[in-house]
Design goal:
Length: 178
């Protein structure tokens, strides 16, 4: 359910102005915005110079209107430059932060694919793993040193003795980055 049937709009901003809100209508694919699909659109506009951000979103209408957007790449035919705008988030009133529009800055070519991509992978991992931290969940961490489990209970108790048995079923691997 990562695709959408809602109407999708984009505004592109550059050093010489912006396109205004444009609906993305005709992709080179038969159906737009399907899960795992790359859609390609031609948008006519005056040359905006160097691009620095986009605003992309949808109208929230239609069944299954929530949408997970990975990234947007804009190819400038005049300068032959590619501008990448990373998202890796939901545009969905019922997911993530509930927003159906996102303002995305251009990804600096000097940091891509290094630090910026690593940050996006971290955010993507957190989006998939954050359910484990909901209220009422018992968390357990495997301690390689003691070869036991440390449990954090919903009532704020901590079992840090390193019990050798896995009392709660499955062990989750987790990496925390600060």
């Amino acid at each position: 359910n990562a695709g959408t049937e809602a109407d999708v709009y984009i505004s592109v901003y550059g050093e010489r102005g912006d396109t205004g809100s444009r609906q993305l209508l005709r992709s080179q694919k038969s159906r737009n915005f399907l899960k795992g699909q790359t859609d390609i659109f031609a948008v006519e506009a005056v040359h905006l110079g160097r691009l620095y951000k986009i605003v992309i979103g949808h109208n929230g209408l239609g069944s299954g209107n929530g949408w997970f957007l990975d990234k947007v790449v804009i190819k400038d035919p005049i300068t032959d430059l590619d501008y990448t705008f990373l998202c890796h988030r939901w545009l969905d009133q019922g997911q993530d932060d509930g927003k159906i529009a996102r303002e995305l800055p251009v990804t600096d070519a000097s940091t891509f694919p290094g630090r910026q991509e690593l940050e996006c992978k971290r955010e993507k991992t957190w989006a998939a793993e954050k359910w484990k931290f909901q209220k009422g969940m018992t968390l357990q961490f495997y301690n390689r040193l003691t070869r036991g489990f440390i449990c954090l209970y919903p009532d704020n108790r901590v079992d840090a003795l390193g019990d050798k048995k896995n009392k709660y079923g499955k062990v989750f691997s987790m990496w925390m980055y600060a």
